[in-house]
Each structure stands twice: as C-alpha cells, then as structure tokens.
Write a structure and sequence with these properties.
Length: about 290
C-alpha cells in the first residue's frame, strides 16, 4: 500500500496533494487550524489536527501505515514540531521508506550576487535560516537511524495561483522595491509539486535538492513585467533603504545570491513548466 502522510498542509504541500494524490492509495494531512481542517476535509482528505504535541490515535494509525511522509511544517524556537510530536511514531513506522522535507534556499549565506549550489555549506545569518539548518540536520539524522531515504527540498521564493506579484497587482498592494544588484530566485508551486513527485520516483538523488527557476532576477523587473502583461501601470520604484517594511520583509533582502538548480534538472530529471518568471507570470496573468 502506498500511503502518504503530510505534516503541515500549507500552500506548496496542498498543491502537491491536489496534483498527485492519485498516485497514492491513501492520503492523510495535518493542520493546526480547525478551519483549515474543515476545508481540507471538504476536499475529501483525511485530516488530523497536529501542532507538535501528542499524536492522536487517528494520526498515529496513519503514520503506522505510511510509506511516504512529506514535511512542510516549519521549525519553531523549540525545534522541528513534527519530530518533536511524531518522531516516536515515525521511528516505529514499519512501512516508511521515504521522507521529503520542504526547506528553503534561505539556509545559504549571502554570496554578494554570486552563485551557490547544493555543495555550498549552509550558513544562514537569520534565526529562521538557522532553525531550518538545524531541522534539515535532524531529518537527515532521522533517516540515517531509521534507514529510510530523506530528501531535503530547498525552495526558492514561491508563487502561483493566488500568491505572488500578479495577485499583489490585482489587489493594489504591489511594491517595486529597488536595491542595487539584488536578485532572487523564484519557483512556481506546480514546479515544486513536480520536484516532490520526481523525488519519490528517484529517492536516491540528493539528499539536498535546490528547487529554483533558471533565472535569478531583480524583484522590480518581475513586478514591471507582470504589470505589462496585465495592461496596468506598475507601481513606482521605491528605494529599499527608505521603504517601510516589516523586519521579516527587510530580512529577505539581507542575502543576495543566485541559486543553481543542476541537481533538480540533471539528476532528478525535472523539466520546469515555468523555467523563468516570464512563463510563470504569463500563465497567471491569463
């Protein structure tokens, strides 16, 4: 039996389930919110409330039969909530053969606009990044002890239906921030789903895989391109140094790097549906 358990059914994991649930005999998902749980149940998913605390009987039973586990829940100050609450049940899971962990390219250090890849040692200068590095190590250690394949998917800036520059332009909330020399990689949520599916088919690739597009680009260029596609005026350029931003928003600009995706393309065999922001924005604008 091929059974998937998803810890933290957020934007990316939910899209993977939506597109690829047919490849499993059963799918169970977790969320911390009762409202989200109700929505997921309405989509026909077996849903369990889980916040890193004790595992309920229903979820424990699903874990016992799980062949694949996808972890999307982020770490907190106390560590990885999935391992904290469900680690014992996962260690005892007799059918488990694969774990996918959704991480972030935010674990890489600032490269001054230069290139990094999977061989670059993670060395984040933010608390969130350091938590991710620790969580990645914990999952790799789990895999070594349990003798199951663990793949770490380091995701670039995620966009897709309902999320990203096109939605911000439609809502009138888009900003065109300019920081000299700054570039970001991005990734469409459907390409994330394709990467996870390919990882399940090729579990020996990795264990770390950068899931990014082919063209790191300045954020103001992406906003301007999306506005052109939509036939609207782009927001005025705003200097990053004088922009009103939350600490989290400002932290995204503290690291400047180009992230290579050769493992994704050449070893995992993923052909990106949206290799640059241009294809992605065009699809969303339509």
């Amino acid at each position: 039996m091929k059974r998937l358990v998803v810890f933290g059914c957020g934007y990316s994991a939910r899209r993977f389930v939506e597109l690829h649930r047919g490849g499993f005999d059963a799918v169970d998902v977790t969320t911390r919110s009762e409202a989200t749980a109700a929505a997921l149940r309405a989509e026909g998913l077996r849903t369990h409330l889980f916040d890193g605390g004790p595992v309920g009987d229903g979820l424990r039973g699903a874990i016992a039969e799980a062949s694949h586990v996808l972890v999307s829940a982020p770490p907190d100050a106390a560590g990885d909530p999935t391992l904290r609450g469900a680690g014992e049940a996962l260690q005892a899971a007799g059918e488990l053969r694969w774990v996918g962990y959704l991480s972030t390219i935010g674990v890489y250090p600032d490269a001054g606009g230069g290139w990094v890849d999977e061989a670059t040692p993670p060395d984040s200068d933010s608390d969130r990044g350091r938590r991710r590095v620790t969580a990645e190590g914990s999952w790799l250690a789990f895999g070594a002890v349990k003798r199951v394949q663990v793949q770490i998917f380091r995701l670039a800036g995620i966009y897709g239906p309902g999320r990203g520059p096109v939605e911000h332009l439609r809502a009138g909330t888009a900003k065109r921030l300019v920081k000299q020399g700054q570039v970001f990689n991005r990734i469409h949520v459907d390409d994330i789903a394709a990467a996870i599916a390919a990882g399940i088919e090729r579990p020996l690739v990795g264990p770390v895989i950068n899931v990014t597009d082919d063209e790191p680009a300045p954020p103001q260029d992406v906003i301007a391109y999306a506005a052109e596609l939509m036939g609207v005026a782009p927001p005025p350029e705003t200097a990053f140094e004088t922009a009103e931003l939350s600490p989290m928003q400002r932290s995204f600009y503290s690291s400047n790097k180009r992230v290579a995706n050769r493992v994704l393309r050449e070893r995992l065999g993923v052909q990106l549906a949206y290799p640059t922001y241009r294809e992605g924005m065009a699809a969303l604008a339509r």
